[in-house]
Design a protein that fits this description.
This protein has 219 residues and is α+β, with helices and mostly antiparallel strands. Helices cover 26% and strands 39% of the residues. Strands 4, 5, 6, 7, 9, 10 and 12 form a seven-stranded mixed β-sheet that branches. The longest helix is centred in the C-terminal third of the chain and has 19 residues.
């Protein structure tokens, strides 16, 4: 996001907030919330769950406390990977505990501590699919969206990326101990029709649909 676009968003938010402030709720939503207490109730291999009490300021100068639970989860990258020369895309399949089945998806993974989004994307692409770009000039990465999977229950922020490859090599894959992932190159129609249901994958597909349409109309 450029400085100009950032200032435009800030101005738009100010205008929208003025109208929102006309609603009857007595909470001052211009004042930051304060965490009164936070206790970890569960800790797993990837995420932990905190039980929190949060203080919200009121317009009359008072305050109220609300009770919330949050799933603390590292940020992630989700990649729509395109082989530009052959106009094909990477798709994956693996077990997902949410639907309790083997689900189709896009290459994705967690961002390690200290990693940039780009570094995490290239690492996960190499580990899960064995795909390694030929060099900096052979890859173009664009940001499609930064999305919370559920703002009401988790702080996980996913960076949805478009990854265009002009040249690459196909090497060995390297999985974590409990990770089992299949990957393959498919056509655009196959990718759209195979049945991706993950929210971030759907965001990526819809964005690519629009990009391809604009490209066709520009010819």
């Amino acid at each position: 996001m450029t400085a100009d676009s950032s200032s435009e968003v800030a101005q738009l938010q100010r205008e929208v907030n003025q109208r929102l402030d006309e609603s009857p709720d007595d909470i001052d939503m211009e004042a930051p919330a304060s965490i009164v207490s936070s206790e970890t109730k569960y800790r797993g291999a990837i995420f932990h769950v905190d039980d929190m009490v949060v203080e919200l300021k009121k317009r009359d100068g008072g305050a109220i406390c609300i009770h919330r639970q949050i799933v603390r989860h590292p940020g992630a990258v989700v990649m729509l990977v395109r082989d530009v020369k052959r106009d094909r895309y990477l798709v994956e399949r693996e077990y997902r505990v949410g639907p309790n089945g083997f689900a189709y998806g896009l290459p994705a993974g967690l961002i390690d501590d200290g990693e940039s989004v780009k570094t995490a994307a290239l690492r996960e692409l190499r580990e899960e699919t064995g795909v390694v770009p030929d060099g900096e000039d052979s890859i173009r990465i664009r940001n499609i969206a930064n999305t919370y999977s559920s703002e009401g229950m988790t702080d996980e922020l996913s960076h949805v990326l478009g990854v265009d490859l002009d040249g690459f090599t196909q090497g060995a894959r390297h999985f974590d101990r409990d990770e089992h992932v299949q990957s393959a190159w498919v056509t655009w129609d196959e990718l759209k029709g195979v049945g991706l249901k993950g929210a971030n994958s759907v965001v990526a597909i819809e964005s690519e649909e629009l990009r391809r349409l604009k490209s066709e109309l520009g010819k």
